[in-house]
Amino acid sequence: MNKLIVALCASAFAFGSVSAMAGNSMKPLSKMESQEAKAARAAAQAKWAAMTPEEQAAARKAARNKKLADATALDMVATENMQYNAQQGKADAAASKAQPKPTAAERQQYGTTMDKKAATGQ
Question: In three state form, how does the secondary structure of 13-71 look?
Answer without folding.
Answer: HHHHHHHHHHCCCCCCCCHHHHHHHHHHHHHHHHHHHHCCHHHHHHHHHHHHHHHHHHC
